[in-house]
Amino acid sequence: MEFEKQQQAFRDSKPSLIGRGFEKFTNPVASAVTGFIPGGLVKGVLKGIDQAISAPQLVKFDHDLSDLPACHDAAKKVERTAKAVSGSTGAASGLGGIATMGLDIPATIAVALRSIRDTGRAYGYDGKGARERLFRLQILELASLNDRSQRQERIAVLDAGISADGSLTEISPDEIEPIIEQAVERVSRALALALFRRRVGAVVPLVGLVIGGAVNVSFQGDIGEAARYAFQERRLRSAKA
Known about the structure:
Number of helices: 12
Largest sheet: none
């Protein structure tokens, strides 16, 4: 029952405070800042989402996959590791201000993709196949949203894609790739808001050190929470089937 409460708490929660705070503060000058980011940078990283499957795991697991609390603890370790890795790169890139701000974006997204993949593995899901790829994109999009109504909509869509036995609903091969392309477009826009707008303070060298690290840690925390919710929901449904 504790896990069911966690699931409902996530559904009812607001976007992260630091994300909403940076969004509000940076909105007036966000367009100017994002103009320094090469167009298609985010999309290019997302196009290579399958590469995350072969990348080394952030955390090595040795827990019993049938033990849900152990799976949850392993997933938390993934989040902590992702925060540490991404936080350090964000701080380093922030030292150079706007000149280096865009360089950290691909690395941040790559860590997020590995975090989602490893969270799935912590719960016993290998993440292989186009349908699993779409599921990971949905998690990434959900974690990137700062608008509460949009967040609720995407949670509902993600939940609807999980069958009663915890497997993912089937989508025909002819339909899955266009749906993935649409998801990439949506996630690209969501990430532009989540990462670029929050980083406007990083245009100032040294100040960017603090902001870059804080934004990355916050973002990876959002990723971890969304990923745990998604894969835990699958496990809970499979347990009831």
